[in-house]
Amino acid sequence: MIYSDFNLKPLNTFGLETKAKTLISIDNESDLIEINDTSLSERNLILGGGSNTVFVNDYFDGTILLIRNKGINLVHEDEETVILDAFSGEVWNDVVSFCAEKGWWGIENLAAVHGNVGAVAVQNIGAYGAELKECFVECLTYSPLKKEWKTYLNKDLDFGYRYSIFKNQKELEIIWKVRLRLSKKMKINDSYAAIRDKIIEENLIISSPLDMVNLVTKVRNSKLPDPRVLGNCGSFFKNPIVSESHFELLKKEYPSIPSYAAKDGVKLAAGWLIEQCGYKGKRIGNVGMHEKQALIMVNFGNAKGEEILNLAFEIEKSVKNIFNVELEKEVHIIL
Ligand SMILES: Cc1cc2nc3c(=O)[nH]c(=O)nc-3n(C[C@H](O)[C@H](O)[C@H](O)COP(=O)(O)OP(=O)(O)OC[C@H]3O[C@@H](n4cnc5c(N)ncnc54)[C@H](O)[C@@H]3O)c2cc1C
């Protein structure tokens, strides 16, 4: 189905008032194959659940490709392993629940991450000590301009922290389905302190992936704003990675600075840096940084693109001035 002047407010969790000149709803393979040069515009944007997409203008003068194909197919099963395909329009958390209920381990720590399957590989979603790349096998994509299907293996995507080659894609390439490898063997991932502490504190016994899903969901709900109540896209910025020498200097000046080992340096907590700059719980007009998590920008209602960009810029400048650290946006800003 093709729609004109389509209201995108219900399709972005920041709750921004915006419309698209054209929206194409892609529910199945024939909808996909039918896309052609005339249905596309000069500007095209693929949209899933809109939980990482911030529309800073009130009109998107182009075509939105809304991916809504459904299905979860078992590809292989043996005594230890399960391989399944999840189609891009499935809600990610539904796939997590489906697998957890079957007793399959691997994605339970990624429970309650918003959005759809198609986007999970885009930024290698991560939470509570787990990342998608650990169970991602491959994905199938379709290029509507080249009319070409392509399979990308895990190694092709150059997965990193909130990164894959799809994160800043220049060519229009739709992820159609994602293949995951899960385990039937118990594999508790309690590497994340907040999870470990909760297990000890509440004397919990985790004996199934469903137990972990319930725990992670509870912890998340206690900390993160619900977009249905307060518009947001989760972390607005990525946690920055600095060199060892830069970290040593910061540590001298700020002994309590939280840090984590990273592949190419030391990872800092962007939320902590933003909090030190005085932005935790600070509201400017219709936007602000959440009172419990300074990394999350929230929409108090009627937020305007300009307000979002101004606050983001102010924070970036402040963190740079105080810590000499560059923040990079995690959200996809649509100008
Ligand atoms: C409260 C809250 C908490 C969050 N917590 C986390 C967290 O813990 N960890 C985490 O990693 N993220 C988190 N996020 C961010 C978000 O949930 C993820 O990035 C999610 O994967 C986005 O999915 P989506 O379908 O909503 O993507 P969208 O916002 O629709 O799209 C995101 C990007 O992916 C592209 N895209 C979407 N679908 C496809 C497709 N089929 N093919 C090709 N490209 C596509 C879009 O063009 C866009 O660039 C959180 C968000 C919220 C609101």
Please count the helical segments: 8
Structural class: alpha+beta
- Tell me the count of domains: 3
The overall strand count is 20
Strand order of the largest sheet: 6-7-12-10-11
Helix and strand sequence: EEHEEEEEHHEEEEEHHEEHEEHEEEHE
* CATH fold name of the largest domain: Uridine Diphospho-n-acetylenolpyruvylglucosamine Reductase, domain 3
CATH architecture of the largest domain: 2-Layer Sandwich
* Beginning-to-end CA distance, first to last residue: 25 Å
Portion in helices: 10-25%
Radius of gyration: 20 Å
Give the overall shape. Answer: globular
CATH level-1 class of the largest domain = Alpha Beta
Question: Can you give the mean pLDDT?
Answer: 96
Poorly predicted tracts of residues = none
Taken as a percent bin, the fraction of beta residues is 25-35%
Which ligands does the model contain, each kind named once?
A: flavin-adenine dinucleotide
Largest β sheet strand count, sense and barrel closure: 5 strands, antiparallel
